[in-house]
């Protein structure tokens, strides 16, 4: 992965790391489907504005019409359904715990890409994914243990929430390979815009049916705007660009870094304590991400020949 793509991946991780905090703020007041419908609709409007500002909207609109079905499918698999599953999970789980489950996305993505696209998975990238996941577990192990007790079984609601978040991560993996197969070569902004429009169409009827009858605070509306513009519009444009230039498995390695930023934003804006295990987990996550994305080509003492096996 080139340096500029690695920088884009870190920016994307920062935006999506913040999204879990914004979801936590907004979901309690808006509910699952209204919050996510607002998120994708605002993101879609932002991306449409970007598309027109960039020029040549006729060509983009022609592509949107020609690729309407696959764009709708990507919108459902990569936005509408997983967003709702994560919002449902955060009614029970903390933002940090949910971001940890989200970090299994590259594992699902690599497996789906290997089975579906026959994407080559070297031993070094596999090792990097394993290390990254181990770092994520280290990052929040103390939080999970303190919440439920080291040996106490998790309540049924927690199990259901965790299963929903895991299902969302699996859908991300499927959506990435589907995008690579059906929309490869389509402009990143067009894919991001079309998928957000598709997910908006899918969610708006449910949002109207479950729109909150009570007053919604300014902080919740602020969370929605941040989710729609920064964490959806900007972030998904970067994501689909990385998907085209770096491939599904490497693009989804961003999820290893998301918990790092989740902790950072929590410390800066919510006053959450940063412990030694958190810092250790961050370091392990970054090492794993470097290996999984190909930023590190070889380990000391191992030749290039071994890496290709």
Describe the structure.
- There is one protein chain.
- By secondary structure, this protein is mostly helical.
- It has one domain.
- 80% of the residues lie in helices and 0% in strands.
- It has 14 helices and no strands.
- α5 (95-102) runs antiparallel to α12 (254-269).
- The longest helix is centred in the C-terminal third of the chain and has 29 residues, at 218-246.
- The radius of gyration is 19 Å and the shape is globular.
- The relative contact order is 0.22.
- Mean pLDDT is 83; it is low at 305-309.
Summarize the structure.
With 309 residues, this protein is mainly α.
Features:
mainly alpha, 14 helices, about 300 residues, disordered C terminus
Coarse structural class? mainly alpha
Task: State mean pLDDT (0 to 100 scale).
Answer: 83
Q: What multimeric state do the chains show?
A: single chain
Rg over alpha carbons: 19 Å
Shape: globular
Topology, number of strands: 0
Q: Figure out the total of helices.
A: 14
Number of folding domains?
1
Level of helix content? over 70%
Distance between the termini: 19 Å
| Secondary-structure element pattern, one letter each | HHHHHHHHHHHHHH
């Amino acid at each position: 992965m080139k340096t500029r793509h690695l920088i884009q991946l870190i920016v994307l991780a920062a935006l999506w790391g913040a999204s879990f905090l914004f979801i936590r703020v907004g979901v309690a007041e808006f509910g699952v489907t209204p919050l996510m419908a607002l998120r994708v609709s605002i993101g879609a409007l932002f991306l449409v504005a970007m598309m027109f500002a960039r020029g040549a909207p006729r060509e983009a609109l022609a592509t949107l019409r020609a690729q309407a079905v696959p764009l709708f499918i990507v919108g459902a698999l990569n936005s509408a359904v997983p967003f709702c599953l994560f919002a449902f999970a955060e009614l029970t789980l903390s933002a940090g715990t949910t971001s940890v489950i989200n970090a299994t996305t590259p594992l699902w993505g690599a497996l789906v890409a290997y089975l579906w696209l026959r994407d080559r998975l070297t031993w070094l990238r596999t090792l990097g994914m394993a290390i990254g996941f181990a770092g994520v577990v280290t990052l929040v192990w103390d939080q999970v243990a303190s919440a439920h007790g080291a040996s106490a079984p998790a309540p049924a609601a927690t199990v259901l929430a965790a299963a929903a978040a895991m299902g969302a991560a699996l859908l991300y993996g499927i959506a990435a390979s589907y995008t690579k197969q059906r929309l490869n070569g389509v402009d990143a902004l067009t894919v991001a815009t079309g998928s957000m429009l598709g997910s908006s169409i899918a969610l708006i009827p449910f949002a109207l049916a479950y729109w909150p009858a009570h007053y919604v605070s300014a902080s919740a509306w602020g969370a929605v705007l941040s989710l729609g513009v920064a964490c959806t519009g900007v972030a998904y444009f970067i994501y689909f660009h990385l998907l085209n230039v770096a491939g599904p498995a490497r693009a989804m390695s961003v999820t290893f870094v998301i918990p790092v930023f989740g902790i950072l934003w929590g410390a800066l804006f919510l006053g959450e304590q940063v412990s030694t295990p958190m810092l250790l987990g961050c370091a392990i996550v970054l090492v794993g991400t470097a290996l999984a994305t190909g930023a590190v080509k070889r380990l000391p003492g191992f030749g290039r020949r071994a890496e290709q096996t």
